[in-house]
Predict the 3D structure of the following.
Amino acid sequence: MKRFTTAAAASLSLATLANAAPAFAADSVAVASYGGAYQEALHKAFYAPTAKTLGIDIKEFTLSGITDVRTQVKAGAVEWDVVELYAGQCQQAADEGLIEPLDYNVIKTDGVPKQLVQSHWVGFTAYSTVLAWNKDVYKDNPPKNWADFWDVKKFPGTRALSGYGPSTNAEIALMADGVPADKLYPLDMDRAFKKLEEIKPDITVWWNSGAQSGQLAVNQEADMLAIWVARIDAAIKEGAPYDFTYNQGVVDIECLVVPKGAKHKDLAMKVINEFLKPELQADLPKYVPYGPVNQDAYKTGKITPDLLKNANSTPENLAKQVIQDKPYWAKNGQAAQERWDAFLQK
Amino acid sequence: MAISTTAPHLTGEAHYLTELEQDARRERRQLFALCTPGLLLTMLLLFLPIGWLFWFSFIDADGNPTFEHYSRIWTEGAYVQIFIITFQISILVTAICVLLGYPVAYCLSQLPPKWSGLLLIGILLPFWTSLLVRTYAWLVLLQRRGIVNDTLIDLGIVQQPLPLVHNMTGTIIGMVHIMIPFLVLPLYASMKSIDGTYLRAAANLGASPTRAFWEIYLPLSLPGLVAGLVLTFILCLGFYITPAVLGGGRVQMIAQRIEASVHLYPTWGPASALGVVLLLLTTLILLASHWLLGRWRRRLG
């Protein structure tokens, strides 16, 4: 009994220590996103103002997806407090038990569409994968949709797609095959892969990072490519003779999560709350053509019509695109990914 | 042996012998003790992680023993294909390295020290540059609108840019550049130690320079060549960055597949199993090359 009390006392004091430690170091939060032009925009629109408001230090990191979170959580060495995931990974991370439930007593979600407010993740920004092309090559007759991308006779030239996986690529392939945008889900994977098989010999590069996809445009390595809007926008600003269309683009929502065992969990909730505020969300289109997820941002008056024209999540541009079905990918992502890896290898 | 059979009148000497032996044994023990930190470090840093790797490759997500990670390698065609491609690339790169590196090493060993030192720096300098930087440099050089293609088109040698990168060609060019020092350096060291009088003796006995090279010089340089060859080949097997950057997503080697497995599956098992298979194959190759070299040496006497 005595031994028990000592142990209890010891663990109690340990617990106090553990509680005290974060409070002591609570002036810094580690945030991970996807780098490049996108994260620079995040820095200006979200990180810097939030750091100022909360009087904290925001340390920035980059990641490539759920694996980084999984690795940290499984190794018991969680370095990040707020992490951005995409596509099915938000829900997948929740299902795998890698992330903390969000504290909606702290996080206010007024204005955020309800389907993007989930127990373990919340929508943050909307990014688009679009069709971009070299204006010097296609001049007055640019490709208009994915069917044109697949038409190597009418539109000769080098092509690039994302090598990450089937997510987005499957949607693109099905649209190229004539599936109407509103009838995509549930995806016909067999048909998608058959269509991808068709274009595979003509794909010069399967890009493996956002930075690489931007370089493909800047160096004019790919005459036609599927690319994230932020990247092609940055490439165009850098002088690449490229243009893009929102037609048949694929929109996905980036979500914010807190890895299980994050050192500054409580502060992370406060940071997420700041990130979702309409005033901050309204600043994003200034730096990158991504619209705000929080619809109240449009009420702030900060978003000018000029900025709106290019932003991906305006009603007008949204109508041209497909919104990716997160639950579908959370459920089918892994099996499709295995198939994708075999597909690329063959 | 000798001690046990000694006659009684020789006990003094026997005593002396035992003492000598004890001394030797003590010295061995001390030497061994000196080795222990190194041994412990090796155990800790090498065998423990590898043991861990083995362990992970045999358990599934729930911690139960399983062979599924290995059976997947066999049943899914893609994996075998990746192993085949990995070995093809490694063999090709090693062969090109030998063809390019042997003359270079020979040249180095024959030049006066002043010049060979300069050339050696030429080989070592890129060796000290980051692998990533060199790989991206090749990307800049070889891409569609890169320096090489622009020059070729300007000179009218080709009409269309050559597909030099984002494929097997680019991967192999990049890998050869990175691997050449690993072949040249051991080869150069072994060539440096070849006594020139052997070649003069051969010439004196009427051998043509070609014959002297094939029969005297090449066999003598063989240990260095094999050392460089094995080093190059084994390093090639584990290449990751170069095929990832210069392969355009179309050339996949086993290291990339291991990384992809880490991404894809929630457990370490599948990636560990690939690592174990690669390790076993590498060990087999090492043993085979050792055995072959031993046979060769015996044949040469």
Notes: Chain A has two domains: 2-126+253-319, 128-250+322-345. Residues 2-126+253-319 of chain A form a domain with the D-Maltodextrin-Binding Protein; domain 2 fold (CATH 3.40.190.10).
